[in-house]
Structure formats: C-alpha cells, structure tokens
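Known limitations

Files may contain more than one protein. Parsers should not assume a single record per file. Below, a two-record file is shown to illustrate correct handling: read the sequence, read the token line, then continue until end of file.
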Amino acid sequence: MRAAMKRVFEDCRAGSLAQGSGRGLASNRAAITNGLAVALFLLCAVAPAHAQSLGQGLAAFKRQDYVTASRVFIPLAERGNVAAQSYLGFLFETGRGVPQNYTEAAMWYRRAAEQGDARAQYSLGLLYDRGQGVPQDIVEASKWLNLSTAASPPRVRESRARIRDAVTTKMTRGEIAQARLRALEWAPSRER
C-alpha cells in the first residue's frame, strides 16, 4: 500500500512540475486532487483492519459473537494486552469462537496471570487443579488461587476464597506451605 501511495504522490508531483509540457493549471490541480483522493481512499480502506480495539472485542463478546471477538482479541493478546489474553483464554477453554483447546487456554491465561490479572490467575489455578491443558499440580493451583483471591475485588473475593479453600483441603501441610511460599515469591512481570 505504501508503494501505491508513493506512486500516487510522485505522479501528482510530476504533474505539477510538468506545467511546461502543455498541461494547464486546472489539469494539474485535477491530477493532484485525484491523487489525494486515491491516497485517502487507500488509507481509509486499510486503517480499520489494524484499528481493532479491545472495546470492539468486548462488544462482540457481549453480543455473543465469539468468532469476531476472537479475531479482535488474538492480535491484541499477541501484543501483550492483558485483558485480551484473559478473554482469549476463556474462549479457548470454553470453545467459543475458536476450537476448544485447554493447552491454548492455559497459555493465554498464564500470559495474563504473570502480568497480574486476577481472573486469569483464578482460571489458571482451576486448570492446574483439574489438570486441563497443564499437568495436574495442586501446589501450582493453590499458588494461583491464593494470588487471585488476594487481588480480587471484594464482590468476588469470598467466592474465590471458598474455591481456594476447597483446593487446600486436598493438600498436605507441606504442599500448603510450598504454595504459599510460591505465592509470596511471585511478582508480576510485563511482556515486552
């Protein structure tokens, strides 16, 4: 597209410089105007493909248009957008708009969880508890559920604490201590 726009601008410039070649001023203005119109059209035609925003993905998600939501979330998630990663994890976990794939879900949840997203931490903890998309690991499950509970807003903290506590009942004292230590040593990291 840049090459096409460059040619249009070069043609316009060449047309304005060719006044001595028999072209009139009106002809040159028309060439410039037409060239600018073509360039503007090309710019507008391509811009929406790159301008997908998280808001557009969320709107599609709320409409239950999961295919569109996944198409919006994937490039955003690949660029490190935490919310897009978390939503994409959910789409892969549930098979909405994309083929169900627990391994993909775990990967997207992990990327968001490592950046501190409480929803992704909660979902990743549940995947570790069930062994879906990741090896079953009760200590890692408890770590993520502890982090999620601590970072959750008050309206969901109690329900997440109940789930965390239910997972803890399956653990030995040593496993509980290990999970708490992992949670204490954890620090969020930003993707580059």
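...continuing to the second record:
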Amino acid sequence: MSARNPNNASAGAQAHTVPSSRAAAQPWPQADSVGPADRAPPRRRLLLASGAAAALLLSGCGFRLRGPQALDFATVHINTPAETELGAQLRRLIATSGTTTAIENAEQADARLQILSNNRGREILSLTGAGKVREYQLTQTLRFQLLDKTGTPLIPPTNLSARREYTFDDSQVLGKEQEENLLYRDMQADLVQQMMRRLAAARRAG
C-alpha cells in the first residue's frame, strides 16, 4: 500500500474552498441601480399605478373639475340678508361666477332669487341597550324659486334636502354639539352648491 502524500491532501482541501471563476465574476447589484419605484413597497407601487391609470382615463373622457359657472342674468336680488350665513354664502358664490352681481334693489334686478324656507331637523336614529341615544340623523331642507324681472318663474319652487348621521355620547355633550353644528354647516354648503347648479341651468325667456 502506497503512502498518501500530505501535500496532495492539503491541495485538495484548498481546491474545495476556492470559489469558481464564474461565481467570482458575477457582480453584486449596486444600490444605485435600483430606482425609487423599485424600492417602494408593492402596495405603494400599485396605488401609484392605479392613480396614473385613473388620471389617463379622466383626461381621455374630457372630465374637468367643476368651477364657477356662468349665470344667464347680469344682476340678481336675493331676499336673504347678507348678514346671515346663507345670504353671505350665496352672494360669495354668485360673485365668483364672473357674470352676475347681487344687488339690493329687487325692481332693477334681472332675476330675483327667493329663499322660501330653510329648515333643520334632528331625529333619533338608534338607541343603546340601556335606552340612551346612540345615533342621531340631521336633516336640512332648502326651498327656493327664481323669478325674472316680470315675475315669471325661471325656476319654480324647488326643494333641496340633505342629511347626515352621527353617533352621540352624553359624556361628551359639548364636543357632540360642536360636531352637530359642523354637520349643519356642511349640509348647507352642499345645498347651496346644488342651488348654484340649478341657477346656472336657468335661462331667461327670449
């Protein structure tokens, strides 16, 4: 039996520890080669892609955000005082139309906007097991009409309504009262916007 050469055994052990030239030639990816979109989490990339697709669709179908709308009369009289919240809102939006001015003389106005009623209400929506109020529903109804200079209706008496719901907690009465006031203001702003769209669609005869 021949003796084993210790040098050969050492060389063999070293051969197993040396990486192949192909493995050594493959570079590791550089951090600078990864873009911001690739580093973003999958969910964020999906949201970005969805937003871009939605923007393309909206631009393709001609969608535009609604801004101030032109009215078909140069002057209008509003029977609600400017000192009230509703009167101030109406005058401000009419001024932004760029076509119409609110004046105080009803006889000289091309149109007369008459607020016939503006009512608010609150009713119980649900109760707790102990019989206490859990939810309220708030409502607001705005009734108006638009007349031309001769008294002919451009918009007949029309009702607009809105509703909101909120949870009630009798341990936070002050906070809930403030929340209720904010909801009423939000409903009124919504109703005024609805009214402005109808005013923009109204056309004088002749």
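Parsers that stop after the first record will miss the second one. For reference, the second record is described as follows. The first strand starts at residue 75 and ends at 78.
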